[in-house]
Amino acid sequence: MKLITAVVKPFKLDDVREALSEIGVQGITVTEVKGFGRQKGHTELYRGAEYVVDFLPKVKIEVAVAEGSVEATLEAISKSANTGKIGDGKIFVSSLEQVIRIRTGETGEDAI
Question: Which letter does DSSP use for residue 19 in this model?
């Protein structure tokens, strides 16, 4: 089992959610986050004063999937979140040692 964590632009959330639904991904967790990568933020003008926006708004999406679904999930996320511009985000893949569904007590892939 793998935990796929994607950090993407907020306006791409619906596209990613739809792409994951189409390939049969059952559940996702979404968190509003702030951060920066290579772009290191940007400068904005507000009421005549310049200020630096260091942390840009992003959305973190977490999906637990079985080993056989990893490639399809990665492809769905990367295609649906891509704008071709700087700051599109990143995808991280981590191993999951154990998953337990609290309501039923199911474990492993049955809990996903």
Answer: H
Q: How many helices (H) and strands (E) does the chain have?
A: 2, 6
- Compute φ and ψ for 24, nearest 5 degrees: 90, 15
* Residues 15, 20, 26: CA angle, nearest 5 degrees: 135
pLDDT one-digit tens code per residue, 22-78: 999 989 999 999 988 776 666 666 777 776 777 889 999 999 999 999 999 999 999
Beta-bridged to residue 34, according to DSSP, are 57
- Per-position DSSP letters for 38-84, written without gaps between them: TT--EEEEETTEEEEE-SEEEEEEEEEE-GGGHHHHHHHHHHHH--S
Q: Is 86 exposed, middle or buried (0-12, 13-18, 19+ CB in 10 A)?
A: exposed
Q: Write down the pTM of the prediction.
A: 0.86
Q: Can you give the pLDDT at residue 59?
A: 97
Q: What local confidence, expressed as pLDDT, does residue 97 receive?
A: 94
The gap from C-alpha 45 to its chain's centroid, in whole angstroms, comes to: 30
